[in-house]
Amino acid sequence: MRTAIVTASYRGDLERCRLLCESIDRHVSGHTRHLILVEERDRALFAPLAGPKREIVGERALLPAWLRPVPDPTRLGRRRLWLSPFGPPLRGWHVQQLRRIAAARRMPEEVMLSCDSDVVFVKPFDAARLQRDGAVRFHRQPRGFDDIIPGFRADHRRWSARAADLLGIAAPREVATGYIATCIAWRTDTIRALAERIETVTGRPALAALAADRALSECTIYGRFVDEVENRPTRHFAEPESLCRVYWDGAAMGEGDLAAFVAALGPEEVAIGIQSFTGTDPDLIRRAARLR
C-alpha cells in the first residue's frame, strides 16, 4: 500500500513547517509525496517548500465554498475564523481537521500519515513501518485519558461524546481510550467509510455535519469508528506508543534540554514535537534533529 504524508498548516507555523519538511527530506523514506494543506491566501507563502515530492494544496481544492475564512474581530484580525451556515464560526485548528479528512477521502494512496507542523523527525523512518501483513498502524492508548493534563480532560470527553453522536454510537457515550497523536496513520478507505457513516447517521454531507459544532477531534472520531463501528480488526494493528514525543508546555528548551529529550525517545518514537508557544528556538531544534 502507498503512503502519503499530510500536514495541515498556516502562516504562523511556516518556519516550523519548514523544519518538518527538512526533517522529512533527511530522515523519512517510503512515502509517495508530502501534501501541505493551507488556507488559500497562504499558498504563496508556502510555495518555496514545494518540491518533487511535496505539494502545497489550497483549501479551496478540498473544502466546500460555504466555508469562508474571515479576519477574527476578537483577535484584531491577526487570526482567522471560518464562517459556516451549518454551525458556529470555526477556528483554524478545526478547519485543519476538515482539510485532513477531505484530503484523505480524495487521495489515491491507501495510507495517510498525518503530521502536525511542529513535528520534526529525528530518526530514520521508513513509512513501510506503518503496515504489517496488510494492516495499518492504529494509535490506540488504553486508559489514555489518564495521561491527559487535568485541565484538558473535559475537552476530550466532549470530543468522545461528539464522536458517538456523529457515528450513531448509542453507548457508551464516552470512552477513556486515547486516539490522539501529532503523528498518526489512517487508512484512507476507512476515512471514506467513516464519512459515509456520518452522512447516514446525520442525513447531511460529512463536512457539514462535522462543522456543526466546535467539539471536534478527527482522531477520536476515527478511533471510535475503527473500534466500535467498522469492526474489521484485521485491517489495523493497534499500537499504544506514539511515533512522536511532544513537549506541550513549560519553559523554552535549551540545547542541553533538547539533547536529553531526543536521547530519551523510546524505540517507537522517531520524531519530536516542540510546541511553538514554548518559545524554543527553531535553530536549536534543527541542530537536535541533525539538520545542520
Automatic annotation (TrEMBL):
The cross-references to Pfam families, in alphabetical order and at most eight, read: DUF6492 (PF20102)
The organism's lineage is: Bacteria, Pseudomonadati, Pseudomonadota, Alphaproteobacteria, Hyphomicrobiales
**Which species is this record about?**
Aureimonas endophytica
UniProt protein name: Uncharacterized protein
